Amino acid sequence: xxxxxxxxxxxxxxxxxxxxxxxxxxxxxxxxxxxxxxxxxxxxxxxxxxxxxxxxxxxxxxxxxxxxxxxxxxxxxxxxxxxxxxxxxxxxxxxxxxxxxxxxxxxxxxxxxxxxxxxxxxxxxxxxxxxxxxxxxxxxxxxxxxxxxxxxxxxxxxxxxxxxxxxxxxxxxxxxxxxxxxxxxxxxxxxxxxxxxxxxxxxxxxxxxxxxxxxxxxxxxxxxxxxxxxxxxxxxxxxxxxxxxxxxxxxxxxxxxxxxxxxxxxxxxxxxxxxxxxxxxxxxxxxxxxxxx
Length: 293
Hints:
By secondary structure, this protein is an alpha/beta fold. It has a single domain (8-291), classed as Dihydrofolate Reductase, subunit A. 27% of the residues lie in helices and 21% in strands. It has helices spanning 8-13, 66-77, 86-92, 109-112, 132-138, 164-181, 206-215, 227-240; strands spanning 40-47, 52-54, 81-85, 117-121, 146-149, 184-187, 220-225, 245-250, 260-261, 271-280, 283-291. Strand 4 (117-121), helix 5 (132-138) and strand 5 form a beta-alpha-beta unit. This is 2,5-diamino-6-ribosylamino-4(3H)-pyrimidinone 5'-phosphate reductase. Its EC number is 1.1.1.302. Pathway: Cofactor biosynthesis; riboflavin biosynthesis. Keywords: NADP, Oxidoreductase, Riboflavin biosynthesis.
């Protein structure tokens, strides 16, 4: 695999830039969603042989080799945004950049390569104002993250919980702290299945998140996890077709029963059309199109 060009695997699965464009410097224009109300979605993650993506309690696992990180870096340059859940953001404190790509002959990584916008699903605004995403952005080494959240339920009314006023105030304080640190808060409405009952979930509906991102100009998004996000997107794609491409890396490792997987409770799954499988060092990477069953 040449360092200066994307690997054949990505060209086959996702496509290529126009002939005159320098690889890695702009997102792929060919990643167009079939649904005008949402971005193109690439769901990608690494797992062990027993389908675990994290260790006990969500602890980060080093599942893939350095060569695969370069593929991941190339993949990131192809998308407008890169999305993870707040649990992954808190547990791993990732940078979500393309630092594993070859160092350019001129300028810095951030000046040379296209960096996707970090997108964090965080209903409760648990992201730290001192996380790497925000500290990198503050020194000009990355794009500031957008935090997709939802305003807490009103503190008054019949179903107002005890301490609701304090919860609303704390949420507003966390929002102000993140905005002061450089984050942008993008609000979506939580899905209310039973409006006559008090809210029981902090999850954000996938379709509403994607619509909000498309409205904000995000044309393609790379979804990386963690387990809850992977499960949410696979489930949503099984019913509504919200994922376009699935790229899974399998590492030669068994984590065991205490590891965190994504398959438990996954009832509605999408159909898959195999595009390409490639061995990259010790890992096996598979690319598939998501199709209706």
